[in-house]
Protein 1
Amino acid sequence: MAVKTILVSQPEPAKEKNPFNSLAEKTKVKIDFRSFIHVEGVDAQEFRKDRINLGDFSAVILTSRNAIDHFFRLAKEMRYTVPDEMKYFCVSEAVAYYLQNYVVYRKRKIFHGNLGIGSLVDVLKKHKKEKFLVPCSNIQNESIPETLDKEGLDYTNAVMYKTVCSDLSDLSDVKYDMLVFYSPSGIESLIKNFPDFKQNGTKIAAFGSTTSKAVVDAGLRLDVHAPQPGVPSMTMAIENFIKANK
């Protein structure tokens, strides 16, 4: 069956020029976007149950904009004034620049990697005496604690926000030829929202090995997966599939 409609389980890209728009123009396929998951902040009362005292830490490891937003939100809710001496270690330059929404950038001790926790290792090793706080979601990338443990750093994970399933009940009568997923949480949301979901002819595309595994573990058929050798992106993999199944 030819693919004519696609639902991507993520928010629509902010920029008009993006890979999915290019894919739609090339293949004449209708592409919609809908986030299957969303982030909710942990409130101060719930956070206190973890018995984490923000004042005990001299440095913060920031892995995303969500981590920044919820760190400063909780600090405000708990009436904790983040000291000017706090050191910030960010996984990328983009994350570091986002700190400007909360601190005077040039007056703070801010360090950043290129992309991912691995790129921060060298600078973290130079600050081994710090006590690190790691604001995170209830679903944390395993590579983060693995890397910090390997380097013998003194750190504490602090769950400040949660990734939860979105309500997709308005899609119950809408059918798509292909569903595209980027995380195991997206698959979880599909099953939670539609426990009687039958794949039948619907194609499922997944990005990344953990997402692909989640598709199979859910008893679904994986039709498209990326990255692969010579096919680094999801849109390229989908385009190849469409061309081969006209």
Note: The radius of gyration is 21 Å.
Protein 2
Amino acid sequence: MNELGYGFKKTLPGSVDEIEDRVTEALHSEGFGVLTRIDVASTFRKKLDVDFPEYRILGACNPALAHAALSEERDIGLLLPCNVVVYESGKAGQVIVSILDPERQLAVSGRNDIGDLANEVRDRMKRVIQAI
């Protein structure tokens, strides 16, 4: 796993479909479901008539943690769900998974009182990327 300034990244062997399935399973094991799934390559083909490598954005949500955050501040929903991207690396048979760091994501709120919640989400997301 590599740390980005704003997330975590891992390169894996396999296809985008296979890795997306593994990510979804790992998210589930940490209490997250995938609320949204954006197929960027398909959207670019349809809307722009351009080819783009396979690239998917998954919006992951843990209902209990989201409820806790939204109970503190309703506008925190602007920072939800947690984004996970799965995409072709450019090398045959290699896929990259990147997860936005929830601590960085929630830090923009300026709410220091939700630090423990952000830490818990971060720990779970790190376990997800380690598990895949």
Note: The chain has one domain: 2-131.
Protein 3
Amino acid sequence: MRLFVGLGNPGPQYVNTRHNIGFQCIDLLSQQWGIPLKERRAKAVLGQGQRSGHQVVLAKPRTFMNNSGEGVEYLLARFGAKPADLVIIYDEAALPVGKLRIRPSGSDAGHNGIKSIIQSAHTQEFPRIRVGIGPPQPRQDQVSHVLGRFTADEAPVIAQALVLVVQAAECLLEHGIDQTMSRFN
């Protein structure tokens, strides 16, 4: 089983913000893989299906970003899964817009959503796909940057990055994390 979890903030005011790139990835996976996100639970919106011979869960936590661990903890318990079964997809301001970085584990690197997941799962040992959203502009604070939307110039780069995330998720299912890192990092 693989649980693909995209991080973001619930609510219409956060749709298409930089911080919600994980939600956008899950929406595209849902569409491409034909796995509708029709189950609305207290801690997550999710869909279940099969892909590349694996049982797959696609999920978006219904908690705010800083409490993402609550949604992930619920998903792990509900599906009897281990943290190693996760693939967390989220934004990364330290990467240029649209660049992917895939890792099998690691620290939170200052990302509060990942920090919450590490605290809830009691481990850093879970795969993740980081999608670059670029750093804040000079004199722009981090919060307004991550809660802002992509510029017209950035939009096509992000659209291509979403396609790459789908390809990386396929590769991860079919070939594992090492080959996925070699191909997409």
Note: The chain has one domain: 2-184.
Protein 4
Amino acid sequence: MLSMHLIDSLDAEILLTLDRDPQATVLSLSRALGVARNTVHARLRRLVNDGSLAPFSQRVRTEALGLPLIAFISISISQSASDEAMQALRTIPEIIEMHATTGDADLLAKVAARDPADLHRVTNSMLAVAGVVRTSTAMSLVEVMPARTVPLLQAVAGRTSQEFAEK
């Protein structure tokens, strides 16, 4: 696991500016923020190298891949086979995110599928993994709020939503 540095206010400002203009150059960022080009370049390189920034592939919407259905699947696994089960589950491409959790299940997987029949196929492939005891599925009806970090970056940058909109 990479060792992430905490994002400070300048890092947050850089990221918020990039969020508004993802194709901004280092030079345009430095001018917009009033800091040296080398500072912006070094900050961006550090954010990438220490794992603070997720890969670009995580920005791809599953709908664009022909997988519009999103489901959340709780997975109970046999504790004696947990490492092997998690490794096998990682090989299922439709599982796009997975977390170890507390509560009734051991894992929570976010899954992308073409339609309910395809989701059934994916769920069956999960159940076929040695060590998976049972699953429970909840289909997403509509995304009411996508994953977001802008409000958190704004807080780190020391600005409110209104101030961000005015800039």
Note: The chain has seven helices and four strands.
